[in-house]
Write a structure and sequence with these properties.
With 178 residues, the protein is α/β, with parallel strands linked by helices. It has a single domain, classed as Molybdenum Cofactor Biosythetic Enzyme, Chain A (3-Layer(aba) Sandwich), CATH 3.40.980.10. The chain has 6 helices and 6 strands, in the order βαβαβαβαββαα. The chain has a 6-stranded mixed sheet, with helices on both faces. The longest helix has 15 residues. The chain starts with 12 loop residues before the first strand and ends in a 6-residue tail after the last helix. The relative contact order is 0.19. InterPro entries: MoaB (IPR012245), MoaB/Mog-like_dom_sf (IPR036425), MoaB/Mog_dom (IPR001453), MoaB_proteobac (IPR013484), MoCF_biosynth_CS (IPR008284). This is Molybdenum cofactor biosynthesis protein B. Keywords: Molybdenum cofactor biosynthesis.
């Protein structure tokens, strides 16, 4: 890790979307873990929703978060597997401005150490949609924990060097660096 002048923590505004036909706010352990990890890190979870495993419902929820000028990051849990009901990546696809393939690649590489070859069943991915980052995570709490503890908490921390997603937000929005 590169050193340099200290940077201040910059909280981001996040929406958490759970994709499930069966979970409620009370039983949504993966969504709760995402909210907990984000708030413990100092970020602000400003929206949270649960939608059923339906491509149009998922896309509408994602589009609403992407269009919301307060939301900078969207984290989803669920719907990234290979069964017919797993359609979160397909719901996101038309909304993508720039794919971020390294996220899914790194997630599966890290998951391999935990679950072996079963990691190939994950279609976790990330993308920039307009000026909003979107991360699609599997629905298991173990997968959410891996994504946060080994990737997202660092990449959503402005202090992380040599680079991170938060540092790029002003440029993505077309703002002049301050």
């Amino acid at each position: 890790m590169t050193t340099g002048p200290a940077r201040e923590f910059i909280p981001v505004h996040v929406a958490v979307l759970t994709v499930s036909d069966t979970r409620t706010v009370e039983t949504d352990t993966s969504g709760r873990l995402a909210v907990d990890r984000l708030t413990e890190a100092g970020h602000r979870v400003i929206r949270r929703a649960i939608v059923r495993d339906d491509r149009e419902d998922i896309r509408a929820a994602l589009q609403g978060f992407i269009d919301d000028p307060e939301v900078e990051v969207v984290i989803t849990t669920g719907g990234t597997g290979v069964t017919p009901r797993d359609v979160t990546p397909e719901a996101l696809a038309p909304l993508v401005t720039k794919p971020i393939p390294g996220f899914g690649e790194l997630f599966r590489w890290l998951s391999f150490a935990e679950i072996g070859t079963s990691t190939i069943q994950s279609r976790a991915e990330a993308a920039l949609c307009g000026t909003t980052y979107v991360f699609l995570l599997p629905g298991s709490t173990g997968a959410v924990r891996t994504a946060f503890d080994k990737i997202l908490l660092q990449q959503l921390d402005h202090r992380h060097r040599p680079c991170n997603f938060v540092k790029l937000l002003p440029r993505i929005r077309g703002e002049r660096p301050g």
